[in-house]
Structure formats: structure tokens, C-alpha cells
Amino acid sequence: MLLFSKKKSFFLGAAAAGIGYHAVMPDFTIESQHKGRVAGIDEAGRGPLAGPVLAAAVVFTAGVPAALAPLLDDSKKLTPEQRLAAYRALQQCSTAEIGVGAASVAEIARLNILQASLLAMARAVLRLKVPPDMALVDGNRPPPLLCPVRCVVGGDALCLSIAAASIVAKVVRDRAMARLALRFPGYGWDRNAGYPTGMHRDALIRLGPTRHHRLDFGTVRRLAAREPGPADLSQGADVTVARRVSAGG
Q1: Is 33 exposed, middle or buried (0-12, 13-18, 19+ CB in 10 A)?
Q2: What share of the chain is helix, strand, coil (3-state, %, to 5)?
Q3: What average pLDDT does range 185-208 have in this prediction?
Q4: Which residue in 49, 29, 64, 61 sits closest to 164, CA to CA?
Q5: Are 154 and 26 in contact (CB under 8 A)?
Q6: Average pLDDT of 159-166?
Q7: Where are the domains of the chain?
Q8: What value does the mean pLDDT take over residues 143-163?
Q9: Of 3.30.420.10, 3.30.870.10, 3.30.2170.10, 2.60.120.10, which CATH number belongs to 2-173?
Q10: Nearby residues of 77 by Cβ (< 8 Å), 6 or more positions away
Q11: How far apart are CA 97 and CA 138, in angstroms?
């Protein structure tokens, strides 16, 4: 059974599974307005102080299975356990095609974080088995693609394909940062994924930056110079990693 835009089915499925989701769920309405292969695209990792920025593209070739739809939502609304369950279900879904792309810390420094995010999105689309006929992108800035692009502000909460992409990007990036945490202990990347938590800020002051830190970010430069500001005190990418993540490693 395939589900397209009937939200009632989402609620029934989520209730039956014992999953607590928000009242407004994404559906397949916007995807259904376009013909052919429609890819949902989203990124993860624009805000961290370290690590690559990740993007994912997801195409549902024959709609979204009814059992999968209740699991999909904006990744920021889901718990880590819910994200992982959705990610595994997407991997096992025969109608879901997934592409993952990344931009390295060096590319973030050279391009800026916005342009690097758009580059990661373009790379994710290139990793799909077949190019899409239309791309739905979360946000208001289109990446450079060969197909038409429709920007959907808040798309990860509106479109199932974008929600799926947000989950894939988040899970894959978190795993990459957890691997880096083994090689660069002390920054808590396995828990904060490189985001500016108090522990991460404190570690930057104590240990200094690694080659995976975004030295073009003002917060990183300031903390690396042992000059924490009031906000920091109160809270107490390389290319290799990007390529490994893009390859699904």
C-alpha cells in the first residue's frame, strides 16, 4: 500500500506504532504536483564549529509506503532513536533512492558555509542512480542542478521526500563525527556532532583547534586564540572525511 498525501493515515499509523509525532506531518502533496522523478534535498551541519556539511537527496520512485510515512518528519523534531529507526527503514525501502554528498572543511573555508551547503546538495543529487526531473529543496536558495528546482521553506516539515533527506543527512553526519571523535578525543563530537556546546567551547580553549575545525568561523578563531567572549564563558573537514561520507563510508 502506498501513501501520498492522506495525513489521517499518518496519524493512525503513528498511533498504532506507539510513536509520538507532531500534529502536522509532512505528506506527498507537493511531490505529486510534479511529473517524473522528484527528489527531496536537505542538508545537515551548517551550524557546527567542526566537520563537513552533509546533504542528502531522496527520490521515492513509486510513492511512500504507508508503514514508512509515519516515521518521516523534520529530523530536528525527532529523537535520535526515531531518526535511526527512520534511517534504517529508508535503507530497506525498495521505492527509496538515496544520494549523499558532502563539502569539506577546506571547501567551507574557501566558499563560505552557504555555498558549501549548496555544493553538498549538488553532489548528493549526482549520487542518485538516475537524475531527477525535479528537485524540491529545503530553504530559499537553490543549489546548482541540471534539473528544475523548487525551493520549499520549511520543506522538511511539509514534504516527505525532504523530510527523508533531512533524516539521512543528519544520521550520516552524526556517524561521521562520532568516528572523528575517536581520533580527536576531548571535544565530545560523538555527543555534540561539532555543534557549539559548552563542552566543545571549553575544549577549544583548552586543547585548541584541530584540522577539522572551521577556522573561518569567528567563534572558532576567538576560542582558538584563548579569547572567549561572555557567551562562551557562560556556556562554560577535511577533504578525506567529506569524501568518505559522500561514499557512504
Answers
A1: exposed
A2: 45, 15, 35
A3: 96
A4: 64
A5: no
A6: 98
A7: 2-173, 180-242
A8: 97
A9: 3.30.420.10
A10: 21, 22, 157
A11: 18
Reading the block at residue 54, the C-alpha cell is 552533509
Confidence of residue 235 (pLDDT cuts 50, 70, 90): very low
List 134's β-bridge partners, or say none.
38
User: Is 70 exceeded by the pLDDT of residue 228?
Assistant: no
What is the model's pTM?
0.83
Alpha-helical segments (H) within 74-197: 80-92, 105-111, 113-126, 160-183, 189-192
Mean pLDDT of the chain: 87
pLDDT of residue 237 exceeding 90, the answer is no
What span, in angstroms and rounded, lies between the C-alpha atoms of 89 and 156?
17
